[in-house]
Amino acid sequence: MKLSDFTNAIKDRLQAYATEHEIELLKEDAAELEHQIDKSLAEVGMMILINHPDWLNTELVRLVSNNDITSEILITEMPTVWRDGIAPVCEDVAIEVTKLLQGLPVEGFAPLRVSRGDHVTDKRLQIYVVEVTSKFIVQKTTQ
């Protein structure tokens, strides 16, 4: 199990949808991320950004680490660039992301759970944040 398996599985699952709708799909570890984000919004008008996950050990014993893992997926639309009457709008993309990721099996992790979706108010952009959660366990090493 690697942490990158978690974010790669999310990206792999969303890739076909993003490609079909010509949505820019980025992971937070992309080279020149700020430039990629600016370019995506200015030229394409819609972007999905998979953020690095955080985790919290919920089992406070020495032998086992029982971790809740959370990652946010940022869906951002520049309506003045994106909207043409055909392309899906931000909130519809957020629902599709939810449908695609809910229950997704990822090796080394519990199946993904979409725990929430939040609209973020912005005067220029339409923004939704979709929160994805899972669990993973780490056993004590013998060393």
Might you state the CATH topology name? STM4215-like
Helix/strand order: HEHEEEHHEE
* CATH architecture title: 2-Layer Sandwich
CATH superfamily: Phage tail protein-like
Give the class-level CATH name: Alpha Beta
In helices, the fraction of residues equals 25-40%
Strand tally is 6
Derived from helix and strand composition plus strand pairing, the structural class reads: alpha+beta
Q: Note the total helix count.
A: 4
- Main sheet, how many strands, which sense, barrel? 6 strands, mixed
Overall tally of structural domains: 1
Query: How far do the termini sit from each other?
Result: 19 Å
Q: Can you tell me the overall shape? A: elongated
Percent strand equals 25-35%
| Mean pLDDT over all positions | 90
Descriptive overview:
The protein is α+β, with helices and mostly antiparallel strands and 143 residues long. It has a single domain (3-139), classed as 2-Layer Sandwich (STM4215-like). 32% of the residues lie in helices and 34% in strands. The protein is built from 4 helices and 6 strands. It has helices at 3-20, 33-44, 79-82, 90-101, and strands at residues 24-27, 46-50, 54-57, 64-77, 113-120, 126-139. Strands 1, 2, 3, 4, 5 and 6 form a 6-stranded mixed beta sheet that branches. α1 crosses α4. The longest helix has 18 residues, at 3-20. The chain is elongated.
